[in-house]
Design brief:
This protein folds into two domains: 218 residues, Ribosomal Protein S5, domain 2; 173 residues, Alpha-Beta Plaits (2-Layer Sandwich). Strand 9 and strand 10 form a beta hairpin. By secondary structure, it is an alpha+beta fold. Strands 1, 2, 3, 4, 5, 6, 7 and 12 form an eight-stranded mixed beta sheet that branches. Helix content is 40%, strand content 22%.
């Protein structure tokens, strides 16, 4: 199915749900925010390092409008349910709340914390085509989408970077997930056919054209779902913070991203715990890999970029311990298939997806062969997505939608 047909089907289902639960579409507006895939630079964003993500043309859609009262209503087409979940404007604190509505509600809460309080409630229905638990940032997409909806409906003066910061803050402090800013930044600041070379230490960034002549980005979903809040993600961040504390006995740094691999090797023994030392090594070396990979891409050396992707996976597997057997099979088997320039785990880890660069003529064979081997070794069916790089959030005008 073509991407445009997929979007129209989503918008049709979204409209039907909005009519069913909110009584009609008069005054409602449509919005979209993308998911993301990170090409290289994993677990460096909360370590003051560089990342290289891009927004995708898949993501999360919303139909929303303001209400006359103080109620906030959320309904998810994907999650289903018999009725929208309802909150009051005075009921924004996280205590006693759970489930997917914590993500949009957390953004409302974070807006209020910045002095942007809603003058009235709103009602919103959402739907999306990011596979849940895939590591393609469905949560960040929903956060950026909610922020963009609030900006549009209430006239708040916030730019894309601020939307990303609000999304990260709400996920850190409302949902208890100590993520960096990469996911929200990629969704809020995406640019078609470009990846974002972001220095998370100061949020300076450049757009780098992703020119993959006769090659495709192929995402393979292991269908092993992760739940980062309940996983070791926060533990990894604590390990890196402990490494910085130990290294500051022999140097002065705020984050591991300030170190080159050479400098890290000189002072690494200041970290007494071997496991913590390996986690720190990944953060330092991954940052250096990302810088080299972007330079290779600028020079048109896709082969070098692919080799660095492979090195990234090995480091995430062996040093940072965020892969899993199923994802390792997808990456390692991919390395041996014709036409594959590089493949690695993408996202927070503990399941999810790999991303690979595959020569166009070999894409069909790649999907068939890797899917067969994966099924033989795990008993699971892998899902494959040939993705395109898209823009950041947008409002969908009536002539682009199913609305009359």
């Amino acid at each position: 199915m073509k991407a445009r047909e997929t979007e129209r089907e989503i918008l049709k289902n979204l409209q039907e749900s909005f009519v069913k639960y909110y009584g009609g579409t008069e005054g409602a507006r449509l919005f979209f925010a993308p998911g993301r895939v990170n090409l290289i630079g994993e677990h460096t964003d909360y370590n003051g390092g560089h990342v290289f993500p891009c927004a995708l043309t898949i993501g999360t859609y919303a139909m929303a409008r303001k209400r006359a009262d103080d109620r906030i209503l959320f309904y998810s087409v994907n999650a289903g349910g018999d009725a929208p979940v309802s909150y009051g404007l005075e009921d924004l604190e996280p205590a006693g709340k759970s489930g997917w509505t914590m993500y949009p509600l957390g953004v409302v809460w974070a807006f209020a914390g910045r002095g942007m309080r809603l003058s009235s409630g709103f009602e919103m229905a959402i739907a999306g085509n990011i596979p849940a638990g895939s590591g393609l940032s469905s949560s960040a997409s929903l956060e950026v989408l909610t922020g963009f909806v609030l900006k549009s409906l209430y006239g708040f003066d916030v730019d894309g970077i601020t939307l990303a910061q609000i999304g990260q803050y709400s996920e850190n402090h409302y949902n208890g997930m100590q993520c960096g800013i990469m996911d929200q930044f990629a969704s809020a600041m995406g640019k078609k056919d470009h990846a974002i070379f972001l220095d998370t230490a100061d949020l300076s960034y450049t757009y780098a054209p992703v020119v993959l002549e006769h090659k495709k980005l192929v995402i393979t979903n292991s269908c092993v779902k992760h739940q980062l809040t309940d996983s070791g993600y926060n533990d990894r961040r604590r390990s890196c913070e402990q490494a910085v504390e130990a290294l500051n006995k022999v140097t002065s740094i705020r984050a591991l991203g300030e170190l080159t691999p050479e400098r890290f090797e000189e002072i690494r023994d200041a970290i007494p715990d071997e496991d913590t030392r390996r986690k720190a090594k990944h953060a330092v070396y991954e940052n250096a890999r990302t810088i080299r990979a972007v330079e290779a891409l600028k020079q048109g050396d896709i082969e070098a970029f692919g080799r660095l992707m492979n090195e990234s996976h090995v480091s995430l597997r062996d040093d940072y311990d965020v892969s899993c057997p199923e994802v390792d099979i997808l990456a390692e088997e991919a390395w041996n298939l014709p036409g594959v320039l590089g493949a690695r785990i993408t996202g927070g880890g503990f399941g999810g997806c790999t991303v690979a660069i595959v020569e166009e003529e070999h894409v069909a064979g790649y999907c068939e062969r890797l899917g067969t081997v994966y099924k033989e070794k795990t008993g699971l069916e892998a899902a494959f997505y040939i993705v395109e790089i898209g823009d950041g959030p947008r409002e969908i005008t009536p002539d682009q939608s199913m609305l009359p």
